[in-house]
Structure formats: structure tokens, C-alpha cells
Specification:
By secondary structure, the chain is an alpha+beta fold. The chain has helices at 4-8, 19-23, 43-47, 64-74, 114-133, 197-203; strands at residues 29-31, 54-61, 95-101, 137-145, 153-165, 168-176, 182-191. It is globular.
Length: 204
């Protein structure tokens, strides 16, 4: 498991980042996503993390407890069922990630590819699910695209657990401009496998 200091050290946020990005550290617990586990081969944090793709990203968990559960889950450790379905303040249990998107991730020229938007949603929703039910897989992802997302841009991806039913976690998420504008909204279902993720990989 990553050392605690690796998880909480916040890299310097660029001075030209929007004010809402600068304010994120005061609204959550920073987590260094790249050090939660080996990200070799990870689409977002290995292949696309470059000056032409995802230039920066900053990952925040809503609470200390949520961050601790995510750490365990990303390292393949079992976690007991959380109280997410009883949470009355979803903001406290929200995962918030700021992505700085470059010009090389488009579908239509100058517009972020819808597949990348889906990937960001899946990543952040997965973190919310992991912190709730432990290691799990995406079973369903339903996205409503609201507005075209132009590049380059800073975007805020937010996700929280709506409710948990046994091994299933239902996640609500959105992609926003950080100032109230919404590019996409999604509802996802994540399922914790009966066989651990590691055992699933070894069996295949």
C-alpha cells in the first residue's frame, strides 16, 4: 500500500488555473491517484497523461474515511460495507477531480471526444464505488451529453454514491466547468465480484 505521505502531498496547482481549481484543496482530502497502485497501462494516467492530452489532474475525496477506504480498495484489499446509502450529505462523500485537458483528445476538431468524457466519468465514478463497496467493475454506464466540451479546458468531474444494494453501488456523476455549467451527467452501476479482482485476473 502507498505510504501516507505519498497520498496527501499536493502538487503545485498552476497559477493560471481557474479559481475553482485553486479552491479544491479546501473542500476535500487530496489523493495522489498515480501512487495508489501501479498505473502502468492505465488509459488516463499512463497513455493520456501528457502535454497534448491530460496535462494535469487533481484528485480529491470528500472525507478522510472515504480516502482510507479508497486506498484499501485500490490495493485490492477487502472493505466492509460503507454507510454510503445512509449518507444525508452527499457532498461530504463526493469524489471531485479537476482535469486539465489539452488539444489532442478531440473527436470533432476542437471538441473533446465523447469517449474521453465517458472515460473520465467512469474513472471518477469508480473511485466513489471503490470507496463504498471495495474493488468492483463497471456494469452499466448511462451518459447524457448536455453541451460540447471545447479544448483546451479545465473540467470538474464529480461523483457520489446514490445508494448501495449488497454488492452493487449506484453512482451519480457529472462533468462541469467548475462554475455551474454542465457538459454531461451520468448514472452508473458498479458491482463487486464474488471472486476478487486479483483472482479474476489470475484465472484468465
Amino acid at each position: 500500500m502507498a505510504e501516507q505521505e505519498d497520498v496527501v502531498e499536493l502538487p503545485k496547482i498552476p497559477a493560471d488555473a481557474p479559481q475553482w481549481v485553486q479552491n479544491l484543496p479546501s473542500n476535500g482530502r487530496f489523493v495522489d491517484r498515480t501512487k495508489l497502485y501501479d498505473i502502468t497501462g492505465h488509459l488516463l494516467f499512463d497513455s493520456l497523461l501528457n502535454s497534448n492530452g491530460i496535462q494535469h489532474f487533481y484528485y480529491f475525496m470528500g472525507t478522510e474515511k472515504q480516502a482510507e477506504r479508497a486506498l484499501k480498495a485500490f490495493n485490492g484489499l477487502s472493505t466492509s460495507p460503507s454507510d454510503s446509502h445512509d449518507t444525508t450529505n452527499h457532498l461530504d462523500a463526493e469524489v471531485r477531480v479537476a482535469f486539465h485537458l489539452g488539444p489532442g483528445i478531440c473527436g470533432h476538431k476542437g471538441i473533446v471526444h465523447g469517449g474521453l468524457t465517458a472515460t473520465m466519468i467512469d474513472e471518477v465514478s469508480g473511485a466513489a464505488a471503490f470507496s463504498s463497496i471495495g474493488p468492483c467493475f463497471t456494469a452499466n454506464l448511462n451518459i447524457n451529453y448536455k453541451l460540447p466540451l471545447l479544448t483546451p479546458a479545465w473540467v470538474l468531474v464529480r461523483a457520489h454514491v446514490d445508494h448501495v444494494d449488497g454488492r452493487k453501488a449506484y453512482i451519480h456523476s457529472s462533468v462541469e466547468n467548475g462554475e455551474g455549467g454542465v457538459y454531461a451527467q451520468a448514472i452508473a452501476l458498479f458491482i463487486k465480484p464474488k471472486v476478487s479482482v486479483q483472482n479474476t485476473l489470475e484465472q484468465n
